[in-house]
Amino acid sequence: MIQKLYPEYAAKGYTFVGVNIWDAEADAKAFVQQQKLTFPAVTDPGGKTYLSYGVQQLPTALFLRKGLEQDRRFIGALTEAQLRELLDHAGAGS
Fold it and tell me: If the chain, 94 residues long, is cut into consecutive pieces of 10 residues, what is the mean pLDDT of each piece?
């Protein structure tokens, strides 16, 4: 679902980043290739980035402003409609 929305919202100035805290880097890269994901994806061994934002359960979507300040978060699996609503109300580049 994120891959489906990525081109549309990237054109509006949004950046999506997938963060994998579970898999080794090679396995995470293989998943990205298998799924043909075009948005940036990184590994976060030990969940250091997630912990720095206070994430305590997965999945969690963080919406960050420029400067990486947290604007809002959504805990749980997002539907396409929910993600669209959150993005459309956030304003690109805010």
Answer: 94 93 94 97 91 92 89 94 91 50
| Phi-psi label, residue 19: left if phi above 0, alpha if psi -120 to 50, beta otherwise | beta
The residue range of the domain holding 71 is: 2-89
The CATH number that applies at residue 63 is 3.40.30.10
Is there a domain that residue 10 lies in?
yes
The pTM (predicted TM-score) of the whole model is 0.80
Q: How many domains does the chain have?
A: 1
25 within a domain of the structure (yes/no): yes
Select from 51, 48, 29, 49 the least CA-distant residue to 40.
29
Instruction: Answer whether 64's CB lies under 8 Å from 71's CB.
Output: yes
How far is CA 48 from each of CA 18, 25, 28, 57, rounded to the nearest angstrom? 14, 15, 17, 13
